[in-house]
Amino acid sequence: MVHIKKIGIALGIVALLYGAYYTYSRQVQMVDIRLSSPDNSAIKEMIQVSLDKPAPIYVEYWCGEAGPHFFTPVSAERKNHQVNLLLLETDTTYHYRVVLDRWIPIKSKIFSFKTRKQSPWMVHDWIKDNHPHDPKALGDELVMLCYREFPGYIAMVDGRGRIKWYWQDEQLGVRIASLTPRSTILALLAPVGKDEFLKPQPNKPFVKSGMGYGLRTGKTGFMGGTQLAEIDLTGHVRWRLDVEKLGLIVHHDLQMDKAGHIVAVVRDFILRDQDKKAPADTLWGDAVVTLDTTGKILKKWSTWDRWDLKADQRLDSLKHDRFHINTISFDRDSNYLVSSPIENQVWKINAQTGETMWRLGKGGDFPLDKSAYFYFQHAPHINQEGDLMLFDNGDFSPRDSATAGKTSRALSFTIDEHAKKAVKKLDVPLPNKQFTARMGSAYLLKNGHILQASSKTGSVLVSNAQGKVLWELNTYFIPYRAIPVPRSFWQGYVHNSH
Q: What is the pTM of this model?
């Protein structure tokens, strides 16, 4: 009798739960589910879901029968949803289902679709069999590259040389792009052929914005843009800003700070003699400006702010491009790190006061062994180990000889600001054939390998800490930088668990 009562109670609980679940599941109905391909892309799809009542949802999708399952973030509670499926493979069958995000998830039936083949203009011989090509060398990270010709694009490539994400502009080339703290991409765009300005003409009037005045050409070149744009990982352009109309010449680098402001390197000038207005009396340098997404300039630091003109013995020979600042990045305390390759130094600048806090490099504030000197460097930044890392182009380096050849390399330093001590930690050379006198970058990957861009040779390489090349990407164009994109950057768009 006791057992019968227990069974009856158990059945009653089950019936109660089933009834509650049935009532619960009937509260919201999926009215319509549709699939579309935004931008006619082969590597992303959009699911449009209509409900009869507002509710939060997410989409689960996977490749083949046994492939890993991916989940989109839970959307806000509403009746009509648009959910993006990203990081898809081309020419591949996928399965998916829509899930109502409830205490007990309510799942739709399973649907299927097949992605098309990659667009012909995105098919390139990225990986060559006769070069190192270990697909595991990158770990689970992607490499972001920018194509500066027309039509310009930003692409993210995996260890097998497959494009996993791209954004393309219909009119402009992409000079450079950076990852933002809010998992978007900040890009500098420009018309093709905007790399250099003509040298000053003696009969041409001085133009205050600088757009009509020649910048240094030749060996140091120029890499500027006319528009800024912020793009999210669905390909949506959040905003676009014409900086040429603001009288700004943005070049070489731009980042977004934690407040969502743009911090960019721009051309800047002073007149050596304030009583004269002729171009011959103009000294060109650089500045770092902070502006909001409407173009309002919030603050500015100029290389000329505390520069001793009288003590500068190279001022006349370099007056068209005295510093050639090519990088803006942030130290852990949010102060600026800027790179002056003409000085062969990295400077730390107080972002609030403009004070120069220290200089690293030959003739700087930290004693260095000559083997740690760097020459015409690019892309200094703080890596995930807290060290200052940079790409040493090695141009004009006295360590080069006719027999050894020129060498570019990745360097990192552990910095003790208070003791003014800098200890070289990483020294990872590229093969001599990948020497690049200009441009380039070096980043530490999560797996401890080093990602370097040899811009002039059109190569992106991953090596171990000893310099052994494990993987090489043939970019078929000149990549200004190659930036690692960690898996965590995608958390707001897609993840592997729920």
A: 0.88
